[in-house]
Every structure is written in structure tokens, then in C-alpha cells.
Request: fold
Amino acid sequence: MFYSTAKNDHGLPFNPFKACVVPRPIGWISTVSHDGQVNLAPFSMFNQLGYDPPFVFFSGSNRPGTGQRKDSVTNAEETGEFVVNMATWELREKVSLTSRFVDPDVDEFELAGLGKLPSNMVAPPRVAESPVHLECIYHSTLTLPANRRPSVHHVVVGQVVGIHIRDDVISKEGKIDFVKIRPLARLGYLDYTSVTEAFTMTPQATSEGMIGEAVAATKKKPV
Reply:
């Protein structure tokens, strides 16, 4: 089949676009507002952007019914900081709880019964139950055009300045054990998945950074 995204003439009961780019890791983003209010929310439009230095992004649409930016976007822009907490199979129900649209003064950590850990280099706390955390400094926002006001997406880019990895999820080979963690990922529709199997494959064309070599950063500013 073929359909034009402008016409949306796919003839299916559900729009298949989100199901065409899968699986998507979930960025569980913690932020703090200027007033000190803590926020935690999952974003399925999330991924890495670069590695030297490392960059990540999360993309959020407007809040339904208000047209306002989501709290995570606003907080990251105004305070210049956020933390990415890895969402896992074990934490899936709590991830779902923190996706609820609530007032800005509601602490989603408390709503979901999650513990807080202090970060080393930024103000937002980390999810204590999560095995991996990325401390990020805000870099920029790209606002994407949309056909409807609620569909406007704000793509927040952050530079990763600190990484926490729980010791028990590092294998004897010194690698992160994906199968033990079971990272949560979004599919299309209301479907999700988690990592239950991993295999090694050597690409025909390798490049610097693909394996994740242990290279220390220089004191020079990023180019």
C-alpha cells in the first residue's frame, strides 16, 4: 500500500505512521521548575543525537485542551537542565502513571510512589528505581510546524554531562546488560515492548564510535 501523509488516505482504522518507526526508547524526563516544583514524564519520541560529546533529545506536543507547552519542555528551557531516567519493564506501571496530565504543582514522583536520588551536576532528581540516568544541560529547542495546534512538537536537545549506571547491570565483560534491565520501548498504537534478547553482529562498514570506545574528552570546547 501507499498513502500520502497530507491526505492521510491509508484507509486503515488507525494511522500507521508511529508504527513504522519502532521500537522507540522511552525518555523518562525529570525536571525542576523555576519555583522548585519537580516534574517527571515519559516521552516516546526520544533518542540519541550524537556521541562526542553525547547529545539526546525528547519531543513533546502541546498539552491537550490548552495549547500550552508541556511542563518538561518549559522547565528544561527555563532552567537549562533535565535528567533522562531509563524506563524498564519492571517500572512500566509507574511510567504509565507519570504520563497522566496533571497540574504543574503535582509531583509525579510522589504520584507514582517513586524514590528520588540527587544528581551530581544538575538540579533535577533521578528516579531511584531506574538503573541508568543521563544528566543533561539544555542546548536548544526546535519547534516543528503542525496541521493542528495540539500537534505542534517542541524538540528539546540536551548535552549529556553525567551518566549514572547501577553496578549490578554491568556485565563481567564491562557492558550494560540489556536483557537484565529489559528497557521499555514504544511501538505503534497502544503497544509496547521490552528487550528480552540481544545478539552481536559486526557491520560490514564500521566507524569511530559505533562500538563505544573508551575515549576521554579533551578540554577543548565542542566544535
